[in-house]
Batch of 4 targets.
Target 1
Amino acid sequence: MLVPSAWHLLFLGSGSAFTEGGDNWQSNLVLRAPSGARLLIDCGGDARFSLAEQGVEAGAIDAVYVSHLHSDHIGGLEWLAFSTRFALPHRRPRLFVSDDMAGALWEHALKAGLGCLGSGPARLETYFDVVPIPAGGGFVWEGAMFETVPVLHVGGETCRSPAYGLSFDLNGRQVLLTTDTRFTPEILMHRYRRADIILHDCETAPMGSGVHARYADLLGLPAEIRGKMWLYHYQPGTLPDARADGFRGFVAKGRQFV
């Protein structure tokens, strides 16, 4: 049961990009404010299914935050754009996106499908109330402050694709949501220590991709850090016993944090 005066963070899914549905969906979340407004944290290609499973219609999404430009985090934005554009009453959800990726989001990901309507050319602003975030900055939604957290995900010296986690207050507890990140304690340790709840990217496949934090690496973190860390964005299949290893556990789809 929802507590009206509380914030609620819901995992629509907690799986990797290659999750195939059934027992899980891609790692997208919904944050519900005490007012009832909903912030969708990433909108991957299966968002329309994972939202429907939780009884949330496209029209109930008031805002979207985009962490980075991989399809499991933005692949559902065309569906959301059209669904809200042609719904009655028509509405434009706010779109919070770092200004170092907003141009690429439109030009390289969304323009091909959304750039032309029956009435003529369209822009990203046709569908969304775009709120650019200064790189590494933050934004305010429903009176609460959200701090973006730069993370290292894909790329290197010659090519870097921006990616950002989020830090925010959830009913008096500080949450660190890493989104997709490599294992970089040298970058994130001060964030780990500051947070009360850590929701961490965790790769469980035997062969690591090199662009996600691996379970074996996270095991090397201090016990006091593992003791407040929930793991998500994992691959299908048998999972390690995270609780026995000192973590809070693996996040299942539908899990709520209040």
Target 2
Amino acid sequence: MTPIGLPLPDVVPVLRGPHVVLRPAVPADAGVVARLGVDPAIERLFGAGRGARRGLTSGEARAALARLSGPADTQGWVIEQAGRLVGLARLSAVEPGERHARFAVTMLAREHLGRGLGTETTRLVLTYAFAVLGLHRVTARVLSFNERALACLRACGFVEEGRERESVPFEGLWHDLVIMGVLDREFAGLAAARPECAGLAALARVVRDELATGAVSRAPSP
């Protein structure tokens, strides 16, 4: 049970922002993810080699979506923008007792980068993590050369907490893994100070009410 008395839901609630909608995965998403795969230019930011291919097999796509809802300590969403699936986001290693989790977000194509979609997604998930699940801290791990991801996290209140020095070999060099973290009070202060975050408190109230009343409907597993 979370500190506010709610179990982690079997089906995550829909999180609606001004430009993106985060929703549970459904079986039809597998075909979209298989066609898109993850853009090689984006996969490089996660340490994938230059030979990474565009597109996934149907099995790989189903496995990617299954990771959004499992294991039991994971809460994940597909990201939609204007009705199109554009990315994936999840909280993993959610520990309600210790009140922490790890966050990751992936956009599937480079045309979705630089438009603030990842930042908006991150703020929606952090609102859910802190104001609904009652977590105290959320962390993320990012390769040191992934400046775009680091900038997104900093814009959402994350600060660098440490580095695993020369932890990842990639393209003939060793790279640091940057450990980023944000606390509940830090994100609350940021959200209160920024006009673009004005709707987050209302979103949290709606989602809390939905979960408390059982209004979140069960979706079929991918």
Target 3
Amino acid sequence: MTVSFSRHWLLALALPLLLTACGSSEPDQRAAFKQFLQTRIIDKPGVHVPKLTPDESKSFGDYTRDYAVITDFNSGMDASTKPLNGFVQKGAFRSLGDVIERRDDLKTVQTGVNDLIAQLKQELAKADAAHAQLKQPDDLKTVYDSAYDRTVTVPANALLTVMPQVNGTFESGLKVADYVDAHKAQIQINGSAVQVTDAKVQAELNTLLQDLNAKAKVVQEAQTRMQAVLLGR
């Protein structure tokens, strides 16, 4: 009886070991993850962050946690910058009259964009900290770092370049609005027509408008570059 019980006990211990051995090995999981990063992210133009299928999650094993660093950042970035287009539209102007009428809007969107910048920096810092803590074999680290750069560092830095430029345009718009408000006696606006009765005021206003136009052009160019980053054009 004692021998028989001992054999069954040994069999029970061995069974989990046999079952564990049937799963994917770490080299297989690493190879699958590397191929995914290379073919689905690095080799494609633009920024792509595919959602994992159940089969992919299974084949990557614990490396799904490494990929979560990328997906979590992109989810956070999308959420934090979602209001940006609305802010840009709200602060858009086509004439001096628009600038004056939207003076309060400019102050609101400027504050909103500053908040977005702070949120994005926080998301990037969190992702960079998680990335730095990853322990990966050298062959995977090389591929992963390239994918991380493509999907986290590059788009984040592009946005962090564009958003302050957008706020620079709003700041110039506010300067124009404040100047016009301070010189109401010399400046009359009727629709798109502007009349200035003082040469000095006209010269100063033109300088402010030139700065506003220059900053607006910089934002347009930055938005074009941003689209190139995201779409790979």
Target 4
Amino acid sequence: MNTATLAPSPVTQAPRADDVVSRLRSSEIFRSYQQAFQTATGLPLVLRTAGSFREPLHGAKNLSPFCVMMAAKSRSCAACLELQQRAEADAGGGSVTLECFAGLSESLVPIHLGASIIAYLQTGQVLLQVPTEKQFRAAVAQLKKWNVTVDVAALREAFFQTRVLTKTHYDATVRLLASFAEHLSLVTNELMLKEASSEPPAVSRARVFIAEHLGEPLALQQVAQAAHMSAFYFCKIFKGATGLTFTDYIARARIEKTKQLLLNPHMRVSEAAYEAGFQSLSQFNRVFRRIVGESPSIYRDHLHGANAGTAGRNALACAA
């Protein structure tokens, strides 16, 4: 698992990250997967915004009784939050699993919006070996050092009820989450482009015009005219409704179109780029990497496997 250090700034500066995460959390695809995951594995699963200070796995099903008791104590809860923050710092571009003071494991799997991490799939509260009396006594001793008062008998019962998985089994579960996180990362750009129900009619007209002429050169004045507004006022209204500048919206719409075209395994990367309206392969590569967070060839590898990706890269090299 990747344990490269993550600088805090990309996490907190993701564009409209809270809004996108909220949409992901309420989406049918996430709610359906969350229910299936929790039912199939017996483990909790949440989608939490990067940098959140809510207690780990807040609101999930299948929580460990031991962790529930710890969350009710301020000092042990703070220790869990510190572990969560450390896991974020260690997550980098991939999944990370860490152990708490009592030996329970928790995992974070990052979700990207472009190059920024905006959220994590979080699961865990499991032991990777059968709990022992020695391990429990060590946990109680740590709680005493923190001056945390607990009902030892109740805590013992909760601790020995903790779900136990082999490391191999748990690692495989985290890899499944990584695949789902990659899927969610791919739909975040689409969510950024979705129309808000309360947007002005002029913005709706502009969206329709852009969609119908996406493969052609699009000038601000041209789209503003289609929306029946001056270019200056259009820029202001459009940014307020979509959260994106006109230029960034066009770029994201074209990238989304490119991604749809690349679902066809026989479509060359260069062909998809030009059909989506990009006039330059260098511009396309730069914009694609900025928005998606990886190169077009790597994205194609993820869709169709390494062989298709190699073909796409060769085609791109020839076209260039």
